[in-house]
Amino acid sequence: MKLFIILGAINAFLSVALGAFGAHGLEGKVEPKYLDIWKTGVTYQMFHATGLLIIGVLLGKLPTSALLSWSGWLMLIGIILFSGSLYVLTLTKIGVLGAITPLGGVSFLAAWILIIIAAVKYL
């Protein structure tokens, strides 16, 4: 419970910091196309930071569940793969990194499915 709340808060903090960096540090330095890619990474990082916080709260309210724990780890992996690959793509313009992004998206989807299953099972 505590770990996912901490991970969620760290990722929310990083999302705000990286969003500010993109808006102020990258504007005019990268093409608008890449700035939009950066913004997508920031947006998804914040959504899933919130997801991690929700998982932390649910773990405190529901019986210990591997479903929720796996969901949290998949969200963290998704943030690293999805948002991380978009950040690196923006800074390096190495297009092949775009192939990593969908793996993060699949991690996000799996994490949300596990939350649905846990809710059906325990709520």
UniProtKB/TrEMBL annotation:
Chief location bin: membrane
Instruction: Supply the alphabetized keyword list.
Output: Membrane, Transmembrane, Transmembrane helix
Q: What is this protein called?
A: DUF423 domain-containing protein
Cellular compartment(s): Membrane
Q: Where are the transmembrane segments?
A: 43-60, 67-88, 94-120
Question: Into which family does the record put it?
Answer: Belongs to the UPF0382 family.
Question: Is Transport given among the entry's keywords?
Answer: no
Provide the membrane topology annotation: Multi-pass membrane protein
